[in-house]
Amino acid sequence: MYTAKLIENKSERLIGKVDRPFFVPIQLIELKLNANSIESAVNLAKRKLDPIINNPANLRIEQQTHETLQFSFRNSQDGLKVTYQLEEYYE
Fold first, then answer.
1. pTM for the whole thing?
2. Closest CA to 65 of 41, 86, 91
3. Domain residues for 17?
């Protein structure tokens, strides 16, 4: 089992500067991913986040440790970067 947690939404920095900054929907702030490998967890996370990803081809993945990675993409509303950390989840 893996989790993907929102760690940064650059749009939130625009609060008070623009009329409608992009907010990640609450159900997408932390995702529990029923996957057996980090690769399948990434694919499952991409499918769940598809509604807010501006361009799936531009999704960037950076390996942090053996079982932790970060992925980022541009959001669908204002095009600013959203970053998630994906890691193994222990119950």
1. 0.89
2. 86
3. 2-88
Residues 35-79 pLDDT 10s: 999 899 999 999 999 999 999 889 999 988 877 899 999 999 888
Count Cβ atoms below 10 Å from residue 30 Cβ, excluding itself.
Answer: 12
Cα–chain-centroid distance for residue 34? Answer: 16
DSSP, res 53:
B
Joined together, the tokens standing for residue 18 give: 């623009």
Q: How far is Cα 18 from Cα 29, in angstroms, rounded to an integer?
A: 22
Q: Indicate the number of domains in the chain.
A: 1
First to last CA, the chain: 9
